[in-house]
Amino acid sequence: MEPISSEVVDLSRLQFAVTALYHFMFVPLTLGLTFMLAAMETVYVVTGRKIYKDMAQFWGKLFGINFALGVATGITMEFEFGTNWSMYSRFFGDMFGTPLAIEGLMAFFMESTFVGLMFFGWDRLSKPAHLTVTYLVALGSNLSALWILVANASMNVPQGAHFDPETMRMQFDSIVQVIFNPDAQAKFVHTSVAGYVCASMLVMGISAFYILRGRHRAFAARSFRMAALFGIISTVAVITLGDVLGRLVYEHQPTKLAAMEGVWRTTKPPYEPWLAFAIPDDGKQENALEIGIPFVLTPLVTHSFTAPITGMKELEDQAGPRISSGIAALTALKAWRASGSASDLAAFNAHKADMGYGFLAARHAPGQDVTAIPAAQLDTVVNETKPDILPNVFVTFWAFRIMVFLSLWFFAVFAFGSYVSLKNRLERNPLLLKLCLWSIPLPILATEFGWITAEAGRQPWTVFDLLPTYLSASTHSVGYMLFSLAGFALIYSIFIAAELYLMFKFARLGPEEHGAHARHDDPGHEDGLVVALGE
Fold it and tell me: Do residues 71 and 13 lie in contact, with contact meaning Cβ atoms separated by under 8 Å?
């Protein structure tokens, strides 16, 4: 594998980051709104009260806008693997492509097929049939997330495949191991439930806007209460499942965990503090201005008081023998491909688990050929490579902190919102309503920082411990990368502008027909309004 210029790799990473973060603005709302729509329609089918049908139809409009633009931004990303990451696709394409193919055939087609019936089948399908369609849309959207996260999990905790020295690529072994990758299961539930938080805050915030303006009051009160209760449950689940995911990171990706927590040196347990604030310095490999809570980090991460959290300096030292072993693996592999000798193949198999560390060392080797390192320079190359195993600590540390702090904010807002709503005191708490309104974008921001934590923390690998990022990109020119990056940023910015314009437009219009429907079809409307608003 020949390394690509660092400028092309950096621009390829930036382009994928831009397209992924743009796309991920749409995904959480799609995941969450579908189940909220299903819950609203379920109440309508069970009770027969028209107001819940109005709720499902109105919030369904906002879902439809978000869904259409989410699809448009998502399709492009799959092509980027072939255009910008051809070396990664060649090396890992079987593992990554299989879940994506299943996602397209099973989940995306189901979601796209039934979404039309959900929008246009209200007067053509029976109530139970339409409700079934709505649940199928919700199931399809969440299954899409499952298969995408299964693919991503294979990059973080690769299993279900082996490296074939003849083809120089990972060969697929077991779909069962791929699907039941522990990272995939935890990340899927955590990400999906984070989407429910996003949808809850959107519905609650827009409902708060109506109550502040004195519009659609019964509609808004019911929507607010359902969103607040849905949100508090989802936020508790996000925090709980985040703990599970953190435990898996501790077990499988120690460098990511150490960067997330700013742990530079191993401390005797259980004294390691959880850092609420610090300024990590990647160059000096230390933190400035630490503010921490002692005795918290060890039990929080390891679920014990005796298991140590290995610091990044110790992880660097532990990587030294693996780098030497990886260089030996690539040297034996090159010799075997030239001679076909059984002894060379046996030597490769003895060291192949560390092959990725040999790839990582290539950029420090003379001529970037690890098989040609003179014995006198081996220690120098190993020592120069050791710091490369660490991600950008400042970015990983603060992306994780922002996500955590925002999650605690959501818990407080949903909890107080649920209490006030159940007490029928919404109109007496304008400050809460304003906080809900201005908090609408924050869950999206939290999911973005969660994604940054996961992806930046995996560096320097595209496939953890197997394939470095700097070897994964395609051989494009810098000019091409700048042109395509600018094009994608422009097009995706237009999509975001269209999303915001349409969402603001229809949110301001509100459920126009609700009042007329409620007077004729919901005989308890006036009494319900009094009860809902505590008047």
Answer: no
Pairing state between β 461-463 and 467-468: antiparallel
- Token pair 């000798």 in the structure block, residue: 341
β partners of residue 274: 293
Place of tokens 């039990």: 299
3 state SS of 451: helix
Tokens 């304003």 label which residue? 434
Residue 514 token pair: 């609700």
Q: Is 28 helix (H, G, I), strand (E, B) or coil?
A: helix
Q: 433, 393 in Cβ contact below 8 A? A: no
Q: How far apart are CA 140 and CA 77, in angstroms?
A: 19
Q: What is the DSSP letter of 295?
A: T
Closest CA to 256 of 246, 244, 266: 246
Residue 310 dihedral angles phi and psi, to the nearest 5°: -70, 130
Amino acid at 185: Q
What is the C-alpha separation between 306 and 261, in angstroms, rounded? Answer: 18
Q: How many whole angstroms separate alpha carbon 34 and alpha carbon 223? A: 15
> How far apart are alpha carbons 229 and 178 in whole angstroms?
35
Q: Give the pLDDT of residue 366.
A: 84
Question: What's the average pLDDT block by block, 10 residues per block, for the chain (535 residues)?
Answer: 75 89 87 91 91 90 87 78 86 85 76 83 90 90 87 89 89 88 88 92 94 89 92 92 88 93 87 89 90 88 87 94 94 90 90 93 86 87 92 95 94 94 89 93 94 93 93 88 89 88 88 49 38 34
| Contact indicator for 59, 33 with CB cutoff of 8 Å | yes
Range list of H helices, 423-464 = 430-438, 442-458
- Tokens encoding 326: 């990886």
Contact residues for 343 (Cβ-Cβ < 8 A; gap 6+): none
**Which residue intervals of 340-392 are DSSP H helices?**
342-351, 355-361, 378-385
Q: What is the reported pTM?
A: 0.89
